[in-house]
Amino acid sequence: MDELGHVRGSTHGPGRDRASREGPGSDGGPGEDGSWRRSERQRERERLRRRSDLRSGSIATASTVVFIVLAIWLVTTSPGWPRVKETFFDLGEFSGALPDVLWGFLLNIKIFLIAEPLILVVGLLVALVRNLHAPVFYPLRALAVLYTDVFRGVPTILVIYLVGFGLPALRLQGMPTDLATLGIIALVLSYGGYVAEVFRSGIDSVHPSQRAAARSLGLTHGQAMRFVVLPQAVRRVVPPLLNDFVSLQKDTALVATIGPLEALRQAQIHTAETFNYTPYLAAALLFIVLTIPMARFTDYLAARSQRRRGV
User: Fold this and answer.
1) CA nearest 103: which of 250, 291, 286, 259?
2) Cα 89 to the chain's mean position, in Å?
3) How far apart, in whole angstroms, are the C-alpha atoms of residue 96 and residue 87?
4) Reported pTM
5) What stretch of H or E contains 26?
6) Per DSSP, which regions of the chain are E strands?
7) Measured between alpha carbons, how far is 291 from 30 in angstroms, rounded to an integer?
8) Which of 190, 263, 270, 275 could pair covalently with 104 via S-S, beta carbons 3.0-4.6 A apart?
9) Looking at beta carbons, which pairs linking 298-301 to residues 24 or more positions away fall under 8 Å?
């Protein structure tokens, strides 16, 4: 028998020998049928871990219930609660305004779905322009810097006012007059500056050796960015991008300031008729239903990214 066979026959492998020396208290070993079997020590560790998880979950649940009950008690026993209940929690006003608010909320979703891909394109283009270091591209790079500085510095609601009332006043040929379209343009201009900086930070986070290696293989600057740098950068910036889009979904309500009949505007109309603010609560609940899953998905992606980096 060869040397390898002799070793197999004499020792049966280092794991088998160590398990036989350590006895039943070891971490387990192969059974008679060849399958791995947990030792008594391993099973005890698992029982302790399950017991600890159960105790932690019970404490967390109990403390949460106590906090919620205490908060409800404090609110409902306050002197102004009857007036607040009548003004903000009127079930009849809620059911009467919900269909119109829901119809307007569909416009919010439409604005979000159209603006989101446009913002990604604008942000990526601006980030790529800011990474053009050749002297001939200096005017474009300066324009990209000016764009990000201006639209990150001006509040989004002011951008919506300027675009919504300023562009139609120019009376240019082919200029859109639809209020929702003007709101989308304003959101794209405003959020494009934020997303451009997110993309630029992702591009800068890729180590320069990656680009150098790509160029040494004969790739051009554009090919290195497309096939080497951008795939890594985009994967790293997905969580912050989703955070921006959570904010974008909420800020679609700002378009109401120039007139489109979205959720906030519909709630304002019902409130003006009845002087009851419950329609605003209906609009707020619709935004919460949409944004909370996006926020939790963002947290999941961020946690997965940390696990991949070993953080």
Assistant:
1) 286
2) 31
3) 14
4) 0.77
5) none
6) 29-30, 36-37
7) 50
8) 263
9) 298/239, 298/242, 298/243, 298/246, 301/238, 301/239, 301/242
